[in-house]
């Protein structure tokens, strides 16, 4: 097995006495699109800054292409960073902005111009070479910043919430464009965001962070369908969480005692261990059509139409503290105040250590 492109080993960091990263290790493969996902204060931006050379970790090492880059300054490591505010020079033309990194490397003017035109063509802005940044839209300026980063052919491109300033429609358009560009150039992208939908749309490697640690990582499909921790189950998408205690485990199944009764599901757990059962909204069944696990009766508190589905919140009548979060078909005749049966299939329940 070949060595990873980026190898972050046991990195910790403190600002004063406050720890922001706690013994983080992470491998990033060549050609991958890695998303660092987490809430504010989880350490994802600090980890990106350490990878880019803007912050030296208090402990640990960062290797890129097998070389120790822990203390190497940003300009001398094979990375470039695209910031949320784009940081374009307003007095320079778009072409000069894109070629600026090459200029700092001592590349001659004719070569700079040719490479800048190629990079702008790559991001669909070939006609913008002689324009100034203020003549472009937010999405176009974002693409200029991307072209400026790619033109110097980095081993790793770092993106710090690059779509945060865009409106919803443009953000989704840019997600598609970013993924397409990454596939064309083959550069490893590492992208920080707190937006779960953005992570699932872009990543082939999703890293969920919380309180300075990595909670979960892997393909987004796996992280969503079978999260490893309770935090991951509630941050990477929504889940209804049932607290319980594990009982007998046999033949690949475990019985869990919950406030709604005993539930048998696939999995294993030590007897008497405290566990949590997570159920994704699309796996909760409302009304007469029943799954193989009955979850009792609930009273609907809110129904929100979201285009292709309705998001339904309902409180269990058996355990009022338990709130079900369900997705119902857009055509479903469900409204606030309704009392409905709730069920699911055992195979869709996620068993987590509590």
Walk me through the structure.
The longest helix is centred in the middle third of the chain and has 18 residues. Helix content is 23%, strand content 37%. It is of the alpha+beta class and 354 residues long. It is elongated, with a radius of gyration of 24 Å. It has 2 domains: 229 residues, Rossmann fold (3-Layer(aba) Sandwich); 116 residues, no CATH class. A hairpin with a 2-residue loop joins strand 9 and strand 10. The strands form 4 sheets. The protein has a 6-stranded mixed sheet, sandwiched between helices. A 5-stranded antiparallel sheet has the order 13-12-11-14-20. A 5-stranded antiparallel sheet has the order 15-19-16-17-18, with no helix packed on it. Helix 4 crosses helix 5. 39% of the residues are buried. The chain contains 9 helices and 20 strands. It holds the Pfam family ABC_tran. Belongs to the ABC transporter superfamily. One of its GO terms (cellular component) is ATP-binding cassette (ABC) transporter complex. GO terms for molecular function: ATP binding; ATP hydrolysis activity; transmembrane transporter activity. This is ABC transporter ATP-binding protein.
């Amino acid at each position: 097995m070949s060595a990873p492109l980026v190898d972050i080993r046991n990195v910790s960091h403190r600002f004063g006495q406050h720890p922001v990263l706690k013994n983080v290790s992470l491998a990033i493969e060549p050609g991958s699109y890695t998303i660092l996902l987490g809430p504010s204060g989880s350490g994802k931006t600090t980890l990106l800054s350490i990878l880019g050379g803007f912050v030296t970790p208090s402990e640990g090492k960062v290797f890129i292409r097998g070389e120790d880059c822990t203390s190497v300054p940003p300009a001398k490591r094979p990375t470039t960073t695209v910031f949320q505010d784009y940081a374009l020079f307003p007095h320079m033309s778009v072409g000069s902005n894109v070629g600026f990194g090459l200029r700092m490397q001592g590349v001659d003017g004719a070569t700079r111009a040719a490479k800048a035109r190629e990079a702008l063509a790559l991001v669909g802005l070939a006609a913008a070479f002689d324009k100034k940044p203020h003549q472009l839209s937010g999405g176009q300026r974002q693409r200029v910043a991307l072209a400026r980063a790619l033109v110097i052919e980095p081993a790793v491109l770092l993106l710090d919430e690059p779509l945060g300033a865009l409106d919803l429609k443009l953000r989704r358009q840019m997600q598609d464009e970013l993924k397409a560009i990454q596939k064309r150039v083959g550069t490893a992208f590492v992208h920080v965001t707190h937006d779960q939908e953005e992570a699932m749309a872009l990543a082939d490697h999703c890293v969920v962070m919380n309180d300075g640690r990595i909670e979960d990582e892997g393909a987004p499909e796996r992280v969503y369908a079978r999260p490893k921790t309770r935090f991951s189950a509630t941050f990477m998408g929504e889940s209804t969480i049932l607290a319980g205690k594990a009982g007998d485990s046999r033949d690949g199944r475990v019985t869990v005692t919950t406030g709604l009764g005993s539930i048998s599901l696939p999995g294993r757990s030590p007897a008497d261990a405290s566990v949590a059962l997570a159920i994704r909204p699309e796996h909760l069944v409302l009304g007469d059509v029943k799954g193989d696990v009955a979850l009792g009766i609930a009273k609907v508190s809110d129904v929100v139409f979201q285009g292709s589905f309705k998001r339904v919140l309902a409180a269990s009548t058996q355990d009022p503290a338990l709130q079900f979060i369900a997705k119902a078909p857009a055509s479903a005749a469900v409204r606030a105040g309704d009392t409905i049966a709730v069920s699911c299939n055992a195979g869709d329940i996620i068993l987590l250590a509590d």
